[in-house]
Queue: 4 jobs
Job 1
Amino acid sequence: MDRRTFLAAAGTGSLIATAGCAGDDDDGDDSLSVGMIYSTGGLGDESFNDMAHQGIQEAESDFGISFQNAEPDAPADMDEMQRQFAGDDNIDAVVCIGFDHEADLEANAAEFADTSFVLVDAVVEADNVANYLFREHEGSFQVGYLAGLLTGMEYGHGGGATDPDESTVGFVGGEEIALIERFEAGYIAGAQHADADIETPSSYAGSWNDPTTGQEIASSMYDDGADVVYHAAGGTGGGVFEAAQSAGRYAIGVDDDQSRSAAAFSDVIVASMIKRVDTAVYESVEAIVNDEFEGGQINDLGLEEDGVGAIIGQDFEDDLPAEIVDELEASRQAIIDGDIDVPDTLDDL
Amino acid sequence: MSAGRDRVEATLDRLVDASVLERLQISLAALVFAIIVGAVLVFVSGLIVDCPDPFLSLPGVGGACYNPFEVYWTMITGSFGSLTALGRTLQETTLLLFTGLSVAVAFRAGLFNIGTQGQMILGALGAALTALWLGELVPESLLGALIVIPAGVVVGAVIGGLWGMLPGLMKAYADAHEVITTIMLNFIAMGIAFWLVQNHVGNLESDSVLTHTIPDVAQLSPTIGGTRFSLWALLAALAAAIGIYVLYDRTILGYELRTSGLQEAAAEYGGVNAKRNIVTSMTLSGALGGIAGSIYVLMVQYRWQDGIPPLGFDGIAVSILAGNNPIGVIPAAVLFGAMQSGSVALNLTLGVPPELVEVLRGLIILFIAMPEFFRMIGKRYGYGSDPLATDGGENV
């Protein structure tokens, strides 16, 4: 109740005061306040959105900022939420998580020129928008390579085992869009780097929060002999892990270290393609706090910048054969050095 | 056993015979109950979650994070508390008026159109493409707007109408139940629109599935600054409600439309072409759904994008709440619009998760709609003092 009353008072205050100080970040002793708008996968996806939430929470404890969350039900809500936060005198910066924000932010960044925006996974070219992109294909190559190496050998640990007779690794995507195609292309290229004849079935669930469909797709892939299935499908991926457990095979998580964020499945999550959305959010807030915010820039984060990468699942850290770990480190270095060219579309495979 | 049954029958009789005033009282009482139950629910769920500063600490239980009074107050101020909040409410109201009318029109003819959502999605796409195409050709002036906006609405209505006509034809000539066909056609409509936009008519550079933004001349300019609400659209929606009321209750065609759906054989015997009227009702219903989609594109989103909100499904609840009366749809749409915009404010300012807000909305809908729903069922099975067949689905 206290906070509300204070906010109301502050709001009235700035209404009475002249419009001159609107958008001025350091009026009075008020600390930075950030509006967070997530993607439609929503908080609790143990992946993309939760990573962003983690980043802002770290920023909160390190810099003493405050933040408000908004979770859109559909892309249609994003416009309203952006406008509400941007028009709110108590909000200094708005962080938009996910590519669906792009079209609305293009218009709103121009309309609310005094507000600083951060956009993850898409680019809006405006002076008050800082953009963060990831080279997901590089990280996906790494987990694809791991999957390819695993399916080619006989391996059993935790809640699963590979089928030595089959050489198949699967991919489950959320919606079939260029962004997720980058994951798919990198993953397949990585698997083929291990073994050119490997089978790589892939399928799309058509949604970011439909675990049932995710489970059906993954189950049929495991039935057809897949040893490992990698998902880039947000909340839909939960179904992939379920399927892995009941089939006794392996899965690869995405965005977060899902062997920890979805710890109930840590016995089958052999690795995760980590995408440091948390770092992106944290660093963007840090820049605003230090008055170093640079609108209009595009931060492109790949293996070299530690923006993406393969992280071994917590149950598998000490168990994976050393040669696999060495191979992964070698391919990581080769990608950074430019010796391996990772495709970012299926056409370039 | 039979005493219980008698009680149920007596209650149904009473519900069916309730006068307008009594039904209003029932609805208000239901609203109060829903608010009380919702308050308890909000309070209890606030005990479960963790938050840094609970408004109330209960020894042994923990801190309560959500204050029910604050939650309801935020909902009210979020929907009527400021000019922008009011604009947001009226924006939702306008759209729900059209979808609610769409469902009500079919209901009055005894047809259950679950397909408003699909009709709306295709109508929206038609309007968006029309606006994109015509917007380039017309001058950037009021004249241009007067050409392109009505054109968008008409195209949306025609496409929605045709999509509604399909299940009408299937019902009239192939005896396919409209509930099944309209549900299925929703999926087909979504699939067609998604595929078209993603692969052919949309913005192919974007990762999102969307069309380009329609030009300024095609956008219904907001009446209240900072919102996406146009008074003209609301006036058109109100005119549609009155027009449909007049059509169904004051004209011969309306009478025929009602009887054809309710008592096909009797209508045929009375010299009415019942099959054609079923098709007409569904087409009219679909056209209203299509208009809802057009207005959504021209007034709110300025483009077609995958993930259009479920206004078509909300329209079903709006219509039931209104007892399928076109005039009753107006207050029902206001209530739903207010709850929608209030829940956005709730999510933004108090951090109450959207799922809990949905539960609150659901409770209010459930409590208010249930007596009305039982009344309709009771009426269907001949309870109350006026028998069904003669009233042509009239509720007032």
Job 2
Amino acid sequence: MSDTFYDLMRRQGISRRSFLKFCSLTAASLGLGEAGAQQIAKAMETKPRTPVIWIEGLECTCCSESFIRSAHPLVKDVVLSMLSLDYHMTLSAAAGEQLRANAHETIAKHKGNYILAVEGNPPLGEDGNYCIYYGKPFVDVLREYAKDAMAIVSWGSCASWGCVQAAKPNPTRATPVHKVITDKPIIKVPGCPPIAEVMTGVVTYILTFGRLPELDVQGRPKMFYGQRVHDKCYRRPHFDAGQFVERFDDEGARKGYCLYKVGCKGPTTYNACSATRWNEGLSFPIQSGHGCIGCSEDDFWDKGSFYDHLTTIRAPGLSNLGVEGTAERIGLTALGVAGAALAAHAAVSAVRQASSRGRNDRVSDVEK
Amino acid sequence: MATYQTQGFTLDNAGKRVVVDPICRIEGHLRIEVNVDKDNVIRNAVSTGTMWRGLEVILKGRDPRDAWAFVERICGVCTGVHALASVRAVEDALGIRIPKNANIIRNLMHATLYSQDHLVHFYHLHALDWVDVVSALKADPKVVSEIQQKISPWPMSSPAYFRDVQNRLKKFVESGQLGIFNNAYWGHPAYKLPPEVNLLATAHYLEALDFQKEIVKIQTIFGGKNPHPNWLVGGHPSPINVDGTGAIGAINMTSLNMVKDICDRTIEFIEQVYIPDLLAVAGYYKEWAKYGGGLASQNVLSYGDFPEKPGDYSNDSLWWPQGVILGGDLKKVHDVDLRAPDQVQEWVTHSWYKYAQEQNGLHPFDGVTEPSFVLGPATKGDRKEIKEIDEAAKYSWVKAPRWKGHAVEVGPLARYLVAYARGHKEIKEQVDSTLKALDVPITALFSTLGRTAARGLECALTARRMRYYHDQLVANIKAGDLATANVEKWEPSTWPAEAKGTAPVEAPRGALAHWVKIKGGRIDSYQAVVPTTWNAGPRDARNQIGAYEASLMNTPMAKPEQPLEILRTIHSFDPCLACATHVMSPEGEELVSVKVR
């Protein structure tokens, strides 16, 4: 018999009272009321640990490495008490035939009820033989395991968009998962890699609420990818004030000014880095002095140098106006919220003003 | 092929074929096939890398200052090593000298990776080859506590603690959902540890899983995130400000304090948990000092690392020395020159690529990679499903690198042998005292056990080295030096029309180097020869076998259908296949063109 999360907690010596308290706290931290707490308790009492098959195509294992960095919850608790990670290339004790049998067993026993997590992507060139599993093209294995899955989680930018191996000229025809599997719900969790707590946050959300998170039009959980790095960046006031790092290690860099002029892609990147931050909230690229390279965005490898000012993004000729247009377009199409477009507009307008007034001068009339 | 001799091994593929695909608990995709004789002893071994991504062609025409970010994505396990090799190679090409602080920060980040990567390898990628998790259920927690207190001052040592871990494990097993432990080799006759040591190691498997994420926070402080922190051509992106306005946004007193604290806790964990466990487990597996040596007793290569002087990779500057040992002669260590056309070369005779002249190897500055996925006539199966590979033909996505034509092993054991032969004081003392503690001769190093032991000993050194670099950084700041980046040659307009550069990194898994050619401010060609390419590579034009293949030879298997012995030896190298198989043409999109040197 499969065990429920609640059974497991009880058998680990956790009292019913503590269990309910845990549910209340969880509900509170998620901004839910007493009804939410009851919902969480019910979910945990009735569900066996959700089986997960985690496969890897063309990738670098940075997603798995990020996953094991999770502090809240600790990954050992995820693996021992929340999920049943039945197949994982990097963590499973079994290999070869034995590991393959694990996947078959999970598919047979939990038809329609397991999650297929995909790290990396299938190459379609050379009949799929740029990535071979058990002697077969990886894309065939992906299709086989996806067939009876409840849902698919596309970990990282490889599975979500294609990432580095799909950068021009994409010699292996590396292809994101949603272009190969078209009949299953797919949650994209982009980033190279995604933030650890975003990964475990998506997983625990599904387990807790018994449903997939709300997704944006591109298939990303809104709760983590609904805003730009720029929107929550602690250096934003320097951007608004026109105080920029002009060169690495200059006075502005040492004072923590905005990295926009040395290429920061925060204004066009949807991710939780500036709010959740990395490695238990310790830092994120901008905080450590380097601009955002936009690693959670589709095609980010092919949008010019990481050190180019954003004006080069699809803005031939009209640099400043171009940025504005681009930011506005991104705001409107990707987010579909007029307010965000307005914010982007305001931000870029501020830059335009700043650059017209000379460097590092304070701009007093920043648009709100 | 029936039988042939190479490098002192007799290969015979007549016996039963055993296929292990995928090899788990590694990075990337690796398939191993062996033939065993009637006594189940391995008489033929075939290592097949089963993925290829083509990163180097993607780099053609890009800005060389961006290259580190692309190549960093070669591997997320040994994260940062390719980025480091890239910024070093580009700086070599453009003649950029980085500030002292940047060199110290890079060394610190590199030592940090070593400590975390080796720790994760031992507990999460390798331990389950030696530790029977299910047997731990039978352990007496009181006895476990006594063992723990005898071998280490580590405070997590009470009977109650081990009872808790055992209870959690028991309930996990009873749930019927064994997750990552499902369908493994529990109860296999090759497991030798008593239940108490199994429980001890299982408890530390979980503790190490918690702790490894702390170590990498040093990379987060300086690089903004981990995996895949940020780097910079010309120095390091994180500025230093310990005094004035804005200090809170830079490397400052609080971040330096945190770095120091992490260094000290890392030293403590490695010395009080990892090393005592390694010695305790090794004591039960001394017979593994007889198996798995492969090429280690013959040819080993190390590029060395941790330069004291920025950009200087000579033995005067390096903490770990570079060198090559051939034929097991520890008295003569050869010098490595990455630019010498006759030293590092790659062959594709048995790899899924084409050269105009396949009997020749090519130096990376002249490297060519034209994929050619063709299966040999003796293959069982076809392109849709390969049942057994034909190693007489092309059989791997990994190339076969050679040093002056010799197949070599790289990695912790190779580094230790080179350092030992070069008379490195710290390493010599450490090796001698460990051999004494385990009561085994120096030849015991040439083995699976020796490789695993060398990695642990090295981890103890790198943990202490982290603290050394922290102290060095503080001292340098105290002396008034705040510079972290040299931007004099940041703008492409300051670069020569054409330039080429190369630089080594001694990565956790072994010798790594990148070669870059720059033309008109853009990358003209980019090549990387990677540790796992050296180790996992297939046969070459002379049918010499690679390090993985050699290491499996003549190992007896208890139950060939449960290939625990293969996992032990292959895991002792810590395979990283994404690294090994990214190689690509410098010709960019023209995958059909072939350049001949």
Job 3
Amino acid sequence: MVTPPKKIEVAGLQVWYGRHEVLKNLSFDVYDHEILAIIGPAQSGKTTLLKVLNRTLDSAAGATLKGTVKIDGEDIMKVRSVFDLRRKVGMVSPLPVGLPMSIFDNVAFAPQQAGLTNRTELADRVERCLRQAALWDEVKDRLRTLGSKLSGGQQQRLTIARALSHQPEILCLDEFSIAIDPVTTMRIEEVLKQLRSQMTILLVTNLVQQAKRLADRTLFLLSGDLVEIDRTDVIFSDHPAQRKTYEYVNGIFG
Amino acid sequence: MGQRRWHNLSETLIEWVIRLCGISAIICVFGIFFFVFREGADLLFHRFDIVQFLFSQEWYPTSQSHIRYGVLALIAGTASVTVLAMLMAVPFGLGAAIFVSEFCGPKMKEALKITIELLAAIPSVVWGFIGLTVMNPLIITVFHAPIGLNVLNGGIILALMSVPIIVSIAEDALKAVPDSYREAGLALGATRWQLIYRVLLPAAKNGLLAAVLLGVGRAVGETMAVLMATGHAVKIPTSLLDSVRTLTATIAAELGEAPMHSDHYQVLFIIGILLFSLTFAVNLIADLIVKGIRNK
């Protein structure tokens, strides 16, 4: 079997909030163009792990970090521009945040800040991202209304469109389906499957079935410890390497 | 059963007390308006020349030969000092609020907030005193003005008085913007300034507008400091170095000397009504603006 190229390499990653260790010595790789699900009960450090990747952890008070994280072989702690790094990593947060601007501007914001000013190109980009997030048909006639006027599910798709707007190479989704209905969730899951051909996707989820449906590989995190990372069919089989993994995915604890 | 009835009764009682607290503000406003209006009503409805009042700049309330009550110059005085003060206080105040809320560390923040509150607590007569004894000679030396009590002096003093109010209200408004907005903005690769300009300021705009308005209200209504700092000359200013007199200062200075219920006395109350209407208009306009933004 040929090993696909590594997109993200995490080595000896430790994170503390104050004196509380939330990520304990994690080491794993993420391959290019795979969907990696990150599962685990609350307080496992899943969200923190994503915040490390786009370095929004920098602005969290009292957080300290050890170890290295490389994206495309480059240490993210030593990148020249943290803003370029953040554009490379799209982030979808658990609760939809419609920024206080129009639907169009919500999606155009990141490309504009990155220097895209041509109006037609911008409009094309916005349309493409809204289509990818399965939202275009619902909002195409009211792109100038406030993003925060949309319904919860629509706002969540708006955040996905926004995360795609700066053409990220890695897309991180943090429990994207908390605020939306099952039908919309399924639609977005379809979108994610298509997006895999264009980018690497990290999917933090509390729904183990969602991981099973979507992910190529699954990482199980428990109280900051990496319990197991393997192909999804192995994790969900009767015999994953760790007993705890079996218990968690089958709802015996957690 | 008895306990239950007592419970219901106390519930109703508490509801009424709270309701009373709620409408007390309305009662006070109408009460003040009523009494100010009553004092000026006799003149206002019988022998009052409203055109002269609003559009003449001749304020000679105690003239022996020809008494004239024109407040145009006083309106100009209030307007000039207020506008100048806001030109300085709004950018400074909002800038300081952004710094306190978004840029400085926790210790610095604490120190700044305490100092700013201290600044707000300085009595206005002390500000007037500073205008009189510090700003006055300073303006004379720097601008070679014949007198340092003028629009510039009053404007600076009023700006200094309004800044703490603007800062603390604006900082509250920025603090109320959820952190998820900041995170979302940062995750999109926005720089700090882009985040503030495109995300935080629009999200906090209602609170920021309220901050500016309270600053304007403070500047329009301030009496003692401007009385001492502006030179008290009835005149439409043509430069920043002209002395002026404001509506409020006129009331404060003349009410004590006007005979009770004389025309002069009543005109001063009509000026009070005018001030009342001015602040009401400012608030109303702001309210409409906020509603307009919200419904966009």
Job 4
Amino acid sequence: MTVHKTEPGSEKQDAPDDYVPSQRRLDRERHKRARARRATAIGAVSTLVTGAVLYLVVVNAPGWPRTQETFFDWGYAREAFPKVLEGLWLNVRLLLVCGAAVLVLGMLIAVARTLRGPVFFPLRFLAAAYTDFFRGLPLIINLMIVVLGVPALRLQGVTVDPVLLGGTALTLTYSAYVAEVFRAGIESVHPSQRAAARSLGLGNRQALRYVVLPQAVRRQVPPLLNDLVSLQKDTGLVSIGGAVDAVRAADIIVGRSLNYTPYIVAGLVFVALTIPMTRLTDWVTARMDRRRAQGGTT
Amino acid sequence: MSETPVLRMESVRKTFGGSVVLQDVDLEVAPHTVTALIGASGSGKSTLLRCANLLEEIDDGAIWLDGEEITDPRVDQDAVRRRIGVVFQAYNLFPHMTVLENITLAPRRVHGVPRAEAEARARELLERLGLGGKAGEYPDRLSGGQQQRVAIVRALAVRPRLLLLDEITAALDPELVGEVLTVVRGLKEEGITMVLATHEMGFAREVADQVCFLEGGVVLERGTAEQVFGDPRQERTRRFLRRIVEAGRL
């Protein structure tokens, strides 16, 4: 074994020494524990009070009985839940397919925007125009144009399936966002990394592939996951074309019963689907921050 | 000198915006010799090295590597860089790769060396520079001195004709400087041609065959180490060296 010369604290010391914590340390730790207990207690009380106040405000609102009837009807909720879940399967499939397509397309656009040299001018220009246009265009309008407009053309051999068209519209919009995320990542890699790659004789493309992109993608994982969470709930918008997803399934029951509870059910199901994803995002972010704090030069 | 110089510069001029960074720079580096570039920060040492590696495009003049003009616009720049190794002040290791991957990247991807062969050579070099146990580590787990030695191995892994060292000890703690300089001494004994920009005057005096003093982008004085350090001809060289001595660096 060689002697490690790392910063203090990074290596675990398992040498059994005769260290006995001093009274000062014990006092300090007792005080810290007491403070932590007090903080937890205050937090719990504060949460309870806030919850109670909110509950009372809502329940004592003049329109509460009517609202409860139309939005929180247990019977309709039980009826809607299985149908909404069935529809949700479509959202999940859309998320998987569109998510993959968005990552690929976004990466291609981002790389196109960073290409240098006059030959690539048209490509650069197109990529820039694409991101500008689709980031500015409201998703709902994009969806209407694609889902309702394309079938109206009555083109031979072009699909009229609202799911396929809706997925296409989602991919178009989200690729523009994700391309910008990737581009920000590429530009955040310090130029000295590219210089080091070039000094080793790597060509422009090789430097991008082996040195710049791996670092760029790693850094952009948290914002990418964020966009993926957003895509996940926006898959609900394909319902405007008539595809029966979770939202549409709720819509059908609402149309028949004039009770809005199914919407609440669908909303909660989306939230439940999104939470693991957001937690994953937080976890990945925290992990990367820790690595950076340790590493310094990342 | 009868042998073709490894590196030759003639009337090189480089400007950044309005400021002239290199002016009328001539340089000749014979095979198996060490050239030290000294001078204050901003005198153009680093830019000279970056120009030699084509990381910066020169405005005027010409540069030859092994007798071939590399500033000819028709020259394949990547092919030129393949023959020159560079070690940077800030190491510039790739943080997402292990030490071994850092070193074998260029041999494998640029020179087409099979993986096993590239790794064997990398391990051998690491061993020689006292980094035998570090092949699997990521750069951020190494000390500055270790990182810089890895950077040297990475530059050497492709067997360059010429090694450019750009203030490679400037970012290191004093006690880590020694381990890196020892490595450079070893490279000189192996006969590797080097050009180094440095603030370590004692080291330059010891290791360099040729010393160039730069000021304001001009090579003010050039000669053997004894001559430049022992008996500088220019008043400004003398003044610079006096300041260095006062700062306790010589």
